[in-house]
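writing this on my phone so excuse typos. first protein, seq and then structure
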Amino acid sequence: MNDLKNISIRQFLARRGILPKYERNGYGMYLSPLREERTPSFKVDYVRNLWYDFGLGEGGTLRTLVMRLERCDSREAVRRLQNGEKGDTGIASLSPGIGEPLGVGGVSPVVCSATVPTLRILSDASLRHPALVGYLASRGIVPSVAAAFCREVRYEVNGRAFFAVGFRNDAGGWELRSERFKGGSSPKHITTLDNRSDTVIAFEGFMDFLAYLSLKHPERLRIDAAVLNSVVNLPKAVPFLSRHPVIHAFFDNDEAGRKTTSDLIRLCPRSEVIDQSSFYSGHKDVNDYLIARIKDRPKTTKTISDKQDHSCRNNLQALKAERAEIEPPCRKGVKI
């Protein structure tokens, strides 16, 4: 644990292709890696090795930053950082093309400005790589759900090729995720699915959207859906959302999520906005809820006896109950 204190946040971000927009003596100002923004408000104190996001009002150590970026607990954050340390000493602990440190070169101690490396999309194809399939499985996402809405995207940063799970937005940009990367390509925009319904479900990120569909699997999506791909994109989603009499909001159980729900109610006064976050209370978001439910399920053996078969039926009924708990209620004759 003490060795982790020697890893600088500045170096950690640089390996991910995240560089400061400008630097002063002792600190750098970045575009926040936790949300979308145009004006840098993410400060890294090089001397104290601490970060602070002025937009979110949050900050902390490198460990807490990894927890926020990777959406994992403290122990998992330490494990990933330790694996990264091994990679620095020449041990290939990261999957090639997914979590390799980005080659960004050296950064001078004090500079007036810096540019963020351009991420260029090379190609997209069906999801096949075991590392990406395994990553989605670790998040509890049903393979057929992922295949229907995601692609395997190859991209380039600073001349080096990588790949990740891609989720396309309405403007042609991509949200990119892998076990060790969270980012996206321009243009930044929302993603909408229009099934000509008078009811819509809204999510902050696509992983929560996939988690919702995985909870409902094998049922198909019959109502409309909107994924913000960042809470700052809410204004872009208002024209689509506001045309629906009923909006079910599945935003995160945190301050940013609560504010987004409040803003949605204000921006769509003619719609009934239903906050669904109470159904996954105790969890950060829908995906965390799904992961926790999967971990809590009883394990079955390979040979199923009559008694076990009866137990499996009971488990299936319990799973249906879990789905019903998080599903929006049927309204205005629309089957959900």
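second protein below, same order as before
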Amino acid sequence: MSALVWVAAMLLAVCMEEPAVLLSPVKGAPIMVLLPDSPQLAQQAFQRWEPAVSSHGWSLLAPTTADMLAPADMALRALEATLEKVQARLAPDRQRIYLVGEGAGASAVFYFASRRPDLWAAAAAVGGNPRSAIETNRLFAANTLHVPVLWLPPEQDRLAESLRARLLQAGYNLAKPTRVPLSQAELLTWLAQHTRPTHPNRIDCETGDPAFGRCYWAQITELDFSRRNDVLGSSRVNLGSGAWLDLGRGFSVDAEAEGPGAVVSGLAQDYKGPLRVGDRIVAIAGKPIADGRAYLEFMETQREERGVGVIVDRGPQRLRLEARIRLPQGRN
């Protein structure tokens, strides 16, 4: 990365109103939006991707704050507002805005591509998995009709096949890689094959919130549930068990971090539970939890609500917390 580009990127991160981003700017060019694994890894991810993205003549934009990295409506609004500021400044090729996420950022890719499909030409999830996006219960597969999403799950991901099947069953536009792994250059070449249609002849838009009712040339302004069309089935991606550990809503676990235990990687701004970032969940209901994957597998197998004891390592401390395994309404 050239010193000039790095200075420009750092100046933008410092000078822009929050939320901050890193930007390697090229006027009139496509933009690749990079969602890093965490805010702490944003700079490292930006430096790793910038040479390949610049060689394509594209701009690279990477958020550096947590409020743009979660599979949530608030995060998408923050990212969209930031992207609009950058677009006003760079006048980019709006038919070629690409979305790429790494690790935990990959889950947000699945969500953002479905929730605002008209923003993106194509998307790629490198590592990570869509479980957090699916658990929002707002992941609508039909919306991705014109947004192919390439998923490159981590090697030895024991949940990948079942999650892939769940997405495909709902009709999610999940692209198949030509081979695994793909290099950065190969991934960028794949993205470059796609452009965003401005006025597609057919669109499928499903939402439960008019705030996310814009879809290409259509704008949903009001929802009337008394006129629901039950002939057309919903494309909502199935939750599976949908079980979650009630230690306060709004904590996330790093599915790729090594053990011991499942590492708590993020907390929502309004989180009020007992966990802290960096805690390791090492056992639930007496069952050892080896790592983040083991935690996700354990939750996927839960079919009833019950109270459980949770063992958490916090540095040298070992804590025992009381919690409940909960299921979505109507599944208990």
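Residues 3-227 form a domain with the Rossmann fold fold (CATH 3.40.50.1820). thats all i got for now
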